[in-house]
Design brief:
Strand content: 15-25%
Distance between the termini: 80 Å
Number of strands: 23
Strand order of the largest sheet: 1-2-4-5-6-8-7
Shape: globular
């Protein structure tokens, strides 16, 4: 009882002090906005002392994370999780065995090309290495308290899967979350690139991070015959917070706002897919292939944004100032450039806009491919195109292309990059890696993870040791990208008046230099058997005499007056899956037809 009165007394005192501070403001002083809630006033902003400021509109509110969310984070800790798998029912799409759940991939598609994923029911419990613990989620559960399914796209094809666990409404929450994403990071030798990125984002202004946690998972499969009676060690996973309405609430954002997960989206209008729900031709599946709807289903504001972005008659400065928060936009791009998170042109982030606001904000998602170590070819496990660096990585998206074409916006990006260089220091990154490494070593050097680790532990350690210096490498690649012509797309060969016609998009040079295009046709992708070769200045098409039937390769490179060269976005992939930049293949049939 004494504790109860003590808590009441403290709350009353805090509210009284807030009241006194408000009524004691001198005439003419800044006043606290009447729409600010007590909860907002009591939360200490993560980037400085609390400041009571007067704002005119929702769009003028600062966009920042809620530091309270991360107060109890321990980056080097491990949580133990127990999953007991059971078949559910067909109505809920949960009547699958554990084996069947793991056989699904994100490439099982409906007629509308939407991925199909089967689920099972699961008893979710947390504890320690000795078993579930009292007071934790699911401790006394005898029946399923959630569902489980695989997650990820290409990773759904891997031998070790990642999973999504969704707790039932009556099961409570784990750390305030009802969706628990378990990532195996099967293709990342370090197993911590994603976690490192989000731990760094916690201290980056104008951005919102996600909570992450190392989790050791045990699974007991009761869908087998005979039923498993013991838990099986599934190794180390990294939990990452799910951006959803609960996530928005925890960040003091509008849970009823527009909120989309970007899947395949370059800010074009997409009139056939992006429609209002009231449109008779609206197709939710088609819409979700571009953007997954996670919030408000009124797409009016989104469509207006896309209309204006794609309207060349409206200056991009006007559109940008109306719809975007400059600090958030350029910080997002600067962070991705510096950590080398390349696969963010048309996916792997969220778009959020408060219901009654006009501005759109970017919330990051998925950093498995961050810190690619492009200056360490012996440590890189995948190919990276020459244009996938700096600003050229975003040139294929119409919004980014129009914004980056404005000098003052490139200057703002440059200022953000230099600002983040002082935050993403090698020492800060090393400190986090030193917390992760003992955890990763403990689990990846024993079964089951040691069997599937994509490289030996010695190479994985070399990769980890090289990561702190990757920020500087990516910065150098960024500065170089500003000197190069921008990438462009190749067209398709056609026949015009008995001749072969080739064309390509115009490249762009930030300094207005002339661009020469080296056009070549060859019988092989090594370009040893060249059949046509020409250099054209500021010209984006060429006609050549008809060629004999057979297979050919054609390509173009762009070089500016300063001697900096750029490839097109296009690549040719040979039978071994190796990428050859700037090339396309075509065939000429005996009947004279040209096929790509």
């Amino acid at each position: 009882m004494k504790s109860f009165f003590r808590i009441v007394t403290i709350i009353a005192a805090v509210l009284f002090l807030i009241y006194v501070s408000i009524i004691s403001l001198p005439a003419g002083a800044a006043t606290i906005d009447k729409d600010m809630t007590i909860a907002t006033l009591l939360v200490t902003p993560p980037f400085g002392a609390p400041v009571a400021q007067q704002v005119g509109t929702i769009d003028e509110l600062p966009f920042r994370d809620n530091a309270v969310v991360y107060e109890n984070d321990n980056p080097g800790s491990v949580v133990t999780m127990y999953l007991t798998i059971r078949k559910g029912n067909s109505t809920d799409n949960t009547d699958y065995t554990w084996e069947q759940v793991n056989d699904f991939t994100k490439y099982w598609l409906t007629d509308n090309q939407v991925p199909v994923v089967g689920k099972a029911e699961v008893i979710v419990q947390f504890g320690d290495e000795k078993g579930p613990l009292p007071g934790e989620v699911g401790y006394s559960a005898l029946t399923p308290n959630g569902t489980i399914q695989i997650r990820g796209a290409t990773t759904s094809l891997a031998p070790q899967k990642s999973y999504k666990v969704e707790l039932f409404n009556n099961a409570g929450t784990w750390r305030g979350q009802s969706t628990i994403n378990l990532n195996k990071h099967i293709y990342d030798e370090t197993r911590f690139r994603n976690k490192l990125s989000f731990d760094l984002l916690k201290v980056v202004p104008d951005m919102i991070s996600l909570r992450t946690q190392f989790i050791h998972v045990y699974v007991k499969d009761e869908t087998t015959d005979p039923v498993q009676t013991k838990f099986v060690d599934y190794g180390l996973f990294t939990q990452v917070e799910q951006p959803n309405k609960r996530f928005l609430e925890s960040r003091l954002l509008d849970r009823d706002g527009q909120f989309y997960k970007v899947n395949d989206f370059e800010f074009y209008r997409y009139p056939d897919e992006i429609r209002l729900v009231t449109d008779p031709l609206y197709d939710a599946d088609a819409f979700s292939l571009r953007l997954e709807i996670k919030g408000n289903k009124d797409h009016t504001k989104l469509i207006q944004l896309l209309d204006d972005v794609n309207n060349e008659a409206i200056p991009i400065e006007q559109t940008f100032e109306k719809y975007f928060n400059s600090d958030n936009y350029f910080t997002w791009m600067a962070f991705n450039i510096l950590v080398g998170n390349l696969d963010t042109q048309s996916q792997n982030y969220y778009l959020y806009s408060p219901k009654n606001g006009t501005k759109w904000y970017i919330i990051p998602w998925d950093y498995d491919d961050a810190f690619p170590l492009q200056n360490k070819p012996d440590l890189v496990s995948y190919q990276i195109s020459s244009w996938e660096n700096g600003v050229s990585n975003y040139w294929g998206v119409i919004l980014h292309r129009r914004i980056l074409g404005v000098e003052k916006y490139r200057q703002l990006l440059d200022e953000k990059i230099l600002e983040l260089m002082n935050i993403l220091t090698p020492q800060r990154i090393e400190n986090l890696i030193h917390l992760y490494q003992p955890v990763v070593d403990k689990y990846t050097q024993v079964l089951p993870d040691s069997y599937y680790l994509p490289s030996d532990p010695a190479k994985a350690r070399k990769i980890a040791d090289a990561i702190p210096d990757d920020i500087e490498t990516n910065y150098d690649l960024y500065t170089e990208s500003l000197k190069k012509p921008m990438p462009f797309y190749l067209g398709s060969p056609t026949v015009e008046e008995g001749r072969l016609s080739f064309s390509w998009d115009e490249s762009y040079d930030f300094n207005g230099e002339d661009i020469s295009y080296h056009f070549v046709i060859a019988k092989d992708w090594t370009l040893n058997e060249i059949v046509y070769d020409q250099v054209l200045i500021n010209t984006t098409n060429v006609q050549v005499n008809f060629l004999d039937p057979g297979g050919y390769f054609w390509g173009v490179t762009a070089t500016n007056e300063s001697g900096y060269m750029q490839y097109p976005f296009d690549n040719y992939y040979d039978i071994d899956g190796q990428s050859h930049p700037g090339l396309k293949r075509f065939y000429i049939t005996p009947e004279g037809e040209v096929l790509e």
